Amino acid sequence: MKNDFSTFRNMNLVLINSIEPECDSCKMRMPILQKVKGILGSRIEIFNLDEVSFKAFSKKFKLQSFSSLVLLANGNVIWETSAVSSKDELIQIITTHN
User: Fold this and answer.
1) Contacts of 53 (CB under 8 A, 6+ apart)
2) CA angle at 75 for the pair 72 and 78, rounded to the nearest 5°
3) Is the CB of residue 18 less than 8 Å from the CB of residue 63?
4) What is the pLDDT of residues 20-72, one digit of tens each?
């Protein structure tokens, strides 16, 4: 993936997850995201970005605050949060935009 994140602009729905080694909420999100991907399949692409890549992503997409989970539609930010969301919440948010 390019550092300019142009790949995301060509995708319908993309969920970006920030992963940091010392982040407990990041670790909690991983199995939730795996379940979401398992249920929604090709309707969503999920990318995990390390701290350095996520900071560059945040700057490129002009995020308002430090969000750790961001949903893009055709390269535009349509939802962001720093909270840990449940599988059902994420599926509802994603399918609303699909």
Assistant:
1) 3
2) 35
3) no
4) 778 788 888 999 999 999 999 999 999 888 878 888 888 887 775 566 888 99
